[in-house]
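Hi there, hope your week has been kind to you so far. Do you reckon you could talk me through the fold, stretch by stretch? Thanks so much in advance, here it is.
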Amino acid sequence: MIVKVGGSVADRLEIVFDALRNLEDVKIIPGGWIFADLVRELNPGEEASHWMAILAMSIYGYYMHEFGKKYGFEIAEPEEFNFFERRGKFIVLPYRLLRKFDELPHSWDVTSDAIAVWIAAKIGYRRVVKVTALGGVIRNGEIVERVGAFEAGDLVDRYTPFLLKKNNLELFVCSPEELKNYILRGRAKGTSVGGD
């Protein structure tokens, strides 16, 4: 299971890790949180911003580990995709992987959302779970159960829909509070963003 954990839930990481505690195989991809926001503010240019923002994911990952280590999560900095065949609970810092397999555009169209989906496509996973404060696509004050890849609006970055469509993947978006329902029941209040 690949779970992208956004910076918007940095104040609810305990809930996230508690929901994941009983899984034997889960890889968390961190967002960039305030550290990526700082890169945007500095705006050193697209090339530098790309790599700095990916390093920002590593910084957030180490912060997350302070919450996750008591639930058995380890930090991993893989350089090969075969790492994902290894069972266990990991917070994955993708910088080295992306330096070696530099396949994504160097622009702000690509964020940790696209990176998580790209990794899933590479290793043959069909779904990524994104945990975010919004909890899904909201229309008329309600969370929509399903939208197409290009109908998620600002809930994902601009490149993610292309990856979802190209690889026929699904991104399920939910809040930290709904994550446990998803794990225990296979369904939760949230939005499936489909690649079909």
In short: The mean pLDDT is 96. The domain at 2-194 is CATH 3.40.1160.10 (Carbamate kinase). The beta strands are 2-5, 26-30, 74-76, 89-92, 127-131, 138-139, 142-143, 146-148, 170-174, 190-194.
